[in-house]
Description:
CATH superfamily of the largest domain: Electron Transport, Fmn-binding Protein, Chain A
Number of strands: 7
Shape: globular
Structural class: alpha+beta
Strand order of the largest sheet: 2-1-5-6-7-4-3
Number of helices: 8
Helix content: 25-40%
Amino acid sequence: MSPEITSVSELEAVIGTPLPPVAQKERPVLDPIDVQWIGRSPFIMMATSAADGSCDVSPKGDPAGFVHVLDERTLAVPERPGNRRVDGYHNILTNPHVGLIFIVPGRTDTLRVNGRARLVRDAPYFDAMVVKTHRPILALEVAVEEVFYHCAKAFMRSQLWKPETWNAEALPSRPAIAGALERPDMTQEELAQYYGPTYEERLYKG
């Protein structure tokens, strides 16, 4: 059996402890630099956990600046048409804690915002969230509790922004994956058509 780490002291013996600037870098409110970063981010990862501890991480994407900064302590994330699973939203109904990572293409550092979330059906700022005539049917409001930047090491190690390292064709296509794991009742021709050029045209249609 592999040796298991079961205490903080054991963990610190292996990893070490952070330097004071790292250990103390989180802030309770958004700085103008954070607001600028959020305004340039077209993609976030949203982490949630249910009351029983089960977890979810959901990608959210829209034109850069889609996450609205209401004030230095509040963010709003619009909901767009999707598969309607909304696992993260189910979690928030029983456990409001949420973690957001804001990604800017080409940047290897990322911004983390932790806080407490709630779901709202409407608000005056919804009109500012319209994209391609789609007005969100709900939004996730996040009361900010912690803000800090992650260093670039993970993105640098993964070479995520280096196209010469990409090899998307080495994996099965989206129609092939859907046919094998999600939509076995559809033919590959039907799936190729569904995920074809018109797929992008339907992004903002319910």
